[in-house]
Please model this.
Amino acid sequence: MSSTILKSFLFLIFLVGPIEAFLFDKFRNNTEWWGYVNVRPQAYMFYWMYEHVEPENRPLILWLQGGPGASSVGFGNFMEIGPLDINLQHRKYTWLTEASLLFIDNPVGSGFSYVTSDSALAKDVQTIAHDLITTLKTVLKKALFQKVPLYIFSESYGGKMASVFSLRLWQAIQNGQLKCNFRGLAMGDSWIDPSKIVSSWAPFLYTMSLVDENGRTLVNRYAEKVVSLVKSGHYAEATRMWRATEGVVANLTGGVNWYNILQWSPQGKMDSYQSLEFIDTPQHLSIKHLHVVWGSQARKVFVAQEGEFMKAETKVVNELIRSSNLKVVVYSGQLDLIVATLGTEKWVADLDISMAFKNTKRRILVDPITQTVMGYKRSLKNFSFYWILNAGHMIPSDNPTGALQMVKLILA
Model:
C-alpha cells in the first residue's frame, strides 16, 4: 500500500462521515475494514480491523493505546504491531501472523475518533468502558468474531482502561448482554497504580546512575507530594504534581527518554515519539460541517481525564483474577521509566494473590529465533507476569521478536 493510496484512503474515511462505515480492501490476502460508531450523543469512535488470512482459526486481538489520548490506529498499528510500519513497509514481526487485529482510537477525541462538543469527552474510565463495549458490539455483528477467542492487549494508560473495560465486558457476557468468546487481557507497562509507579522513579533512576544521591532525594520529595495528594483525593492536583515531577527528572538527567532509558530526548522533551506525519495530511478535515484534527496525542482527551489519571485500579485487577476465568497478564519492559518495572512490581505485590505468587518459580524465556534470553515469566493460576528484556515502554517496537514470542505464549 503506497503512501499516496493510504492518504487517499484516510481522506475517504473522513468523507464517509460519522456513520458505521464498512469498506473493504485487501492486504496480502487479509481483509481490512473500518468505520465509525456513534457511542454516545456527539461522540464518535473510529476502529480499524485487519483480518487474518484464516480468521475463523485465529484469535482476535483488540489493541488499546495509552495517553490517554494516543491513537491506537497511529501508534499501535503503524509503530508497533500492524502489518505496515511508519514507512509503509511490511513489518516482519507483525502480530497479524498470529491473530486478527482490531485497533480502536480510544477515548473519543483520540486519533480519528472525535466529538462534536468537548462536553462529550470521557471524564472517567467507566465512560471509556461503556464506549468500548458499544464499539465492540458493532464489530461483533460479524458472527465470526463472536466465536473466535478475543484477547485485549494494551499499553500504558491503555492498561488502566483495559482493566475496567475487561471487567465490564466479562460481566456483560455473563449477563447475556452480548455474545463474545472473551479469553483474556494483557496489560503492558500499565498505569494501574500511579502512586506506586511514581514512587519507583527515584530508586530506579539512582540504580541506573541517572541521578546522584541529591537527585534521588529531590525526585523522592516530589513523588511524596504526588502520593500525598492522591491519598487526600486531590487527583487533578496530583496529576499536575506528577507533571512537575517529570520536569524535575528531565532537568536532572539532561533529558532521559521516558520510554527507553537508553535513548535521549532533546532539551529534555518528554514525549519524544514522533508524530505520524504521513497520516497527518491533510491534517484538518471537514466531516459534514464538522472539524476534525488527527493527532498522535490529543491533549484535550488527557485534560478531560485529569481528575481520573492518578486513581488506582488495583481492585479491578483483583476482581478480574478472582471472579473470572480470564487470563490476566501483566508485562513490563526493563528499560521503561514512565512505568518502571519496579513500580509495576510494587502494585502487583498488593494483589490478593501476591503471597502465593511470589513463591512461584520464575521461568526463563528464550527466543527460539535468536536463541537469546528474551525475558522471564511467573504464573499462578490465571495470572501471569512477563519481564521483557531489551525493551522500554513500547515493547513491540523495541523488542519485536520477544514481544511476538510472548504473544504466542499468551494465545496458546
Observations:
- The chain has 15 helices and 14 strands.
